[in-house]
From TrEMBL:
Coiled coil: none
Pfam families: DUF4832
DUF4832 domain location: 471-690
Protein's recorded name: DUF4832 domain-containing protein
InterPro entries assigned: DUF4832 (IPR032267), Galactose-bd-like_sf (IPR008979)
Source taxon at top rank: Bacteria
Length: 716
């Protein structure tokens, strides 16, 4: 329903000309809690208006007719709907009803139907059930749920005696059986309100044409909902689903090297990695100095960055990279033109930053020329690479040692003596702070957010100034300095920072990545559950890998050692499962396909059995494959990027239903397999691009997931 729907008072004349005050209150209900349906009438079986009128009969209070007929102008799940139009002189009440042999509706939760109120004013009406010659419907305050076409959620509404359909509304309405009571006009002394669903004889739509003289009403897809007959189960199903066109699919773990997730190596180690079968992967990481790219203000040479990205693409993988100014014990990444302009630098030689024999150079990050150059670079980087399918993620970088947004121990608070070597610079016994001002840090992060709308950016630390930006995070000491104090860690550990900055749920929209601390990358897989329990590092041992994953919802981790060091069989399996457990895993438990009435229809349920969403809106295709293997493809408007994982604590599946339809005019008669595929856009550049695979046995190596079969009997 429209959010600006107002509470409106309407005077309505019902069977007894009772004046009613109607109030509507909206509460959103997630569509995933809806239950399956069984079609009663979708109006596709009628060949003419005469056939329709032999089934649906009219009752009117004053003996005047309304026009009720088949319509192809508006419909929900096929070609036809039933159209009801008032005719002058207008009656005070009419009912269009269907009567049939006694039916058992006990195996259902309520009634569902699609309605379009084609008028600029709300429509007030009743839906009644006939059982044992009595009418049961809406009396007093009752609840019904509405779902407007195009919406993924139901709105639960409270009504008073009449159902109010908003102006120009088109969508589904559901009413549970416990909202039906005996109609007061048939028993003035009080009614027996027990509706016997085992003896249902019919139903009717009733409304007041005098009070709704401009309303054209379309009705379609009258259904029982919450049915379990035919094995449809208790999950959301499309309105057109039947037992015959429902297919139950089987879970099977998705491959380890699904795109944009899992463990990954450094790209420059390709020549000396061991067999990729030890640990398949779909991404590679590299560092690159800024002076390899930026030659002057607003002047750039992208050739070296392009070469690195293209090399990774040639292996069918997507790149992650970080640009740096200062990498301890490597040549400086500062562009020469900034040094020529007098950029101040500081030498340092910290043993923990790569060994005692080299000297590194840190720039004055608050230099105005440097700040300007960084903002220009970020804007240019976004202009060139935002949305580039060769790139999976970009780390913000640029600031601090390794571009990791810290200059520890030059942090403004470390005292002389607490650092085990000499401080490079200190004042009054405290290390000076080499980081940029908070204003400059904020500006750089804002620059990334402004410059990238598609490609995901990750920052090293959660902070107050990046909390509300569309930017994720990377934990570069994963399973070693991840857990918060409540789980034995520290408040400055990664999850502690997430908590302090109130971004524990940011993973639902922005990715979490990182790196496992190099010293623990091999030995932790010797333990079950994986955890580094070797010689203490800095006085401590490692953290539980899966507890770290549970808190962070990480999608990928750099873990170079397992790509270059042979592991024992048990350790390999733990590492493989650790990689597979990162990020998303999409399982399709149920699918529906249909080819009736000249239409192709398909729908799938999707559950995310992983720990994080898939963060990109990749194209999803549907195909029909004939018995000769020929494929006809269509592109859907489906978006998988918002499907969050199942909730293990509550048992909620967070299941999503996606629906699609087309016509059969360009499909010949015959039997077809119906297929679904998520398209890795990198495949347009390189044929070996890693394919997106669902966690289903029915998933084929070619990327297609087989979801069911149809028989096309002819075109219309």
């Amino acid at each position: 329903m429209k959010e600006n729907t107002k509470v409106i008072h309407y005077f309505l004349v019902a069977v007894l000309l009772i004046t009613l005050l109607v109030t509507v209150t909206n509460v959103k209900v997630d569509a995933a809690i809806s239950e399956s349906t069984t079609i009663i009438d979708d109006f596709e079986s009628y060949a003419s208006d005469d056939e329709l009128k032999s089934t649906y009969r009219l009752w009117s209070s004053d003996g005047n007719a309304v026009d009720w007929s088949l319509s192809q102008e508006r419909a929900y799940d096929g070609t036809n709907s039933m159209l009801i139009v008032p005719k002058e002189p207008f009656d005070s009440w009419i009912a269009v009803s269907q009567h049939f042999a006694v039916s058992d509706w006990t195996d259902s939760t309520g009634i569902s139907f699609w309605i379009h109120n084609d008028a600029d004013e709300p429509l007030a009406f009743n839906f009644d059930i006939k059982s044992e010659s009595n009418a049961y419907g809406q009396e007093g305050t009752f609840i019904a749920s509405l779902k407007e076409d195009g919406s993924s959620s139901w709105e639960e509404n409270s009504f008073d005696s009449m159902l109010i359909v908003p102006e120009d509304f088109a969508g589904l309405i559901r009413i549970a059986w416990d909202q039906f009571t005996g109609k007061s006009w048939q028993c003035p002394q009080g009614c027996d309100n027990d509706l016997d669903l085992g003896l249902v004889e019919g139903y009717e739509f009733g409304y007041n044409p005098q009070g709704n003289s401009t309303n054209k009403v379309y009705i379609d897809s009258i259904s029982l909902w919450g049915t379990s007959e035919g094995g449809l189960g208790d999950s959301l199903a499309p309105e057109w689903a039947t037992p015959a066109n429902t297919f139950n699919l089987t879970y099977s773990p998705a491959p380890i090297d699904n795109p944009l997730k899992g463990f990954l190596p450094f790209s420059d180690s390709a020549a000396w990695r061991i067999d990729d079968n030890q640990l398949p992967y779909s991404m590679e990481f590299f560092y690159i100095p800024l002076n390899d790219i930026m030659t002057n203000f607003n002047e750039f040479d992208w050739s070296k960055l392009e070469s690195r990205v293209d090399e990774i693409t040639s292996r069918g993988n997507q790149a992650i990279f970080r640009v740096y100014l200062d990498y301890p014990h490597k040549p400086t990444g500062i562009p020469q033109f900034l040094l020529d302009l007098g950029l101040e630098t500081r030498d340092y030689d910290y043993e923990s930053n790569g060994g005692p024999n080299g000297t590194s150079v840190a720039p004055n990050y608050n230099d105005e020329n440097l700040q300007l150059a960084l903002l220009q670079f970020i804007e240019a980087l976004g202009d060139k690479y935002d949305g580039d399918s060769r790139i999976g993620f970009i780390q913000a970088g640029l600031i601090g040692f390794w571009g990791e947004w810290h200059t520890y121990p030059q942090d403004g608070w470390t005292p002389i003596g607490s650092w085990y070597g000499e401080l490079a610079e200190h004042e009054d016994g405290i290390a000076t702070d080499w980081m940029p001002s908070l204003a400059n840090q904020r500006a750089i992060m804002q620059g990334f957010d402004d410059s990238f709308n598609e490609t995901k950016i990750l920052a090293r630390y959660p902070t107050e100034f990046n909390r509300d930006l569309n930017i994720g995070y990377h934990d570069d000491s994963f399973a070693f300095q991840t857990l918060p104090p409540s789980l034995g860690g520290k408040d400055w550990h990664f999850a502690g920072r997430l908590q302090a900055n109130q971004v524990m749920d940011k993973w639902k929209s922005e990715p979490i990545g990182g790196e496992m601390r190099p010293e623990i990358q091999i030995e932790m897989w010797n333990n079950d559950p994986p955890q580094y329990l070797g010689e203490p590092i800095e006085g401590v041992q490692g953290e539980d890998y899966y507890k770290s994953l549970e808190l962070t919802h990480a999608s990928w981790l750099k873990i170079q050692e397992v790509f270059q060091t042979p592991l024992e069989a048990d350790a390999i399996e733990r590492a493989r499962e650790g990689s597979r457990s990162l990020g998303y895993e999409y399982f399709v438990p149920t699918a529906y396909v249909n080819s009736d009435s000249g239409h192709l229809q398909a729908a799938i349920h999707i559950q995310n059995t992983g720990v994080a969403p898939f963060y990109y809106d990749w194209e999803v295709d549907i195909a029909a494959r004939d018995e000769n293997g020929e494929i006809k493809e269509w592109t859907t408007d489906w978006d998988l990027s918002y499907i969050i994982p199942n909730d293990e604590e509550t048992g909620d599946t967070n299941e999503v239903l996606l629906e699609w339809s087309s016509n059969t005019s360009n499909v010949s008669e015959g039997r077809y397999d119906m297929l679904v595929k998520v398209v890795n856009p990198l495949s347009e550049i390189h044929s070996d691009a890693k394919g997106f695979h669902f966690a289903n046995e029915e998933q084929e190596d070619n990327g297609w997931l087989e979801i069911g079969h149809i028989e096309v009997k002819g075109t219309r």
